[in-house]
Amino acid sequence: MNDLVMLDASQLVAGFRQRTLSPVEVMCAVLDQVTKLDSVVNAFCAIDEEGAMSAASDAERRWMQGEPRGPLDGVPVSVKDLVAVAGFPTRHGSLTSSPQHEGEDALAVARLRRAGAIPFGKTTTSEFGNKIVTDCPLTGGTRNPWDTRLSPGGSSGGSAVAVALGMGPLSLATDGGGSIRIPACWSGVVGFKPTFSLVPAGKAASWTALSTLGPITRNVRDAALVLSVMTHEDIDRHSGIAGSSDSWADYCAGLDDGVAGLRIAYCAAPAGVRIEPAIEACVRQAASALEALGAHVVESDVTPLADYYGDGRMHSVQWSVYFAQRARHMEAAHRTLLDPDLKALADAGEQVNTATFADALLARHALTAAMEAFFQRYDLLLTPTFHCGPPPVPGLPARLRTAPALTAWCNQTGLPAASVPCGFAGGLPTGVQIIGRRGGDALVLRAARAYESARGAFPVPGATLERPADGMEAQP
Questions:
Q1: Annotated catalytic residue 155
Q2: Where is each Amidase domain found (predicted)?
Q3: pTM for the model
């Protein structure tokens, strides 16, 4: 694999500044990587090569003049196809969508572009982000970079696969129940779901009242850098340094301050969730690594989650109602084009009565309050990101059709959470999930960085990929 495409954003920017790397050279390498690999894994649904190369040339000119636009000038970034990017259609993975190109960027994308990043392609998603694998009627299935017989997870699978395989170091994705963290876990990369609404989502990306925009990257520092850019309203275009806006938060500041003295709860297996032993062992090692760095790690059953799992319907009720609402506004002919999984979800939502929906919202409020009290006692919480490995392509097994047990509750409570690779289970990557209190994004990233540094470099997928022959899919 070309070493150039595996450089992270910070390394690229350093190379541009020192004039040892060229934005044009980097973009050419990334586009070449897409050409070589994407026919196998199907991570992209749209690429703008001409626009990308033009933007890279402009970035190179700015670096040569010593006037970079911002802290990401010349860095390629892909964007999940639920988020608007000027010059691309936003298809949502749906045959019901319009192929008309967007006239302007979503605000988060506009901030990335203003910082110099180059949005060069749209990544695949399940239809409207409805499930934890990445397949849809419009673009088909996306495959895992470590084993192409398997799913990379979803619904941001295209973003995770692109980053894992060097098809750009950064991707902007969405998470409504685990859609950033799950594919990050199964693809061996970092996924960060910020505190709810910290990153501006706009109406299109937040219509479920559960979804949040966040980065998928190869390391924690890049995630912090992207978050800083997307939450900052005014970046000085010449220096790339924060302006005077009160909204500025530099999530890279203090990133290497470590975890000494932090109170960290470790939940090996929340009530009612069976964690595969190999995954539990990897996450336990991560907890031990943080303890060795000076954190006070205490094993906890996280009592509020026992009630969440005991009921089990809080997330699924809301999720189905929101999709029913989405489908209700479609023409009858369009509804027949929907993914059968999405149609079944919407049909289930149609059957939810007002009292049941209100109960789910009240339960959401109660869980949020209970977790706020929990985080008065602890600074952070560690859990596995997912309880098992990825399913085969195509399809989603019935056992995985419920709300993702370890991730969806963070969307209910609006808490920040990161998935960081912590080892291999059955030959495939798995992740530790680090969760903080609302607004504690910087601390989550700091702990993720501390663990990442102690763990050392994580392997990357092999240089060659083979698409399984028909009938040779992996078995569940």
A1: yes
A2: 26-445
A3: 0.95
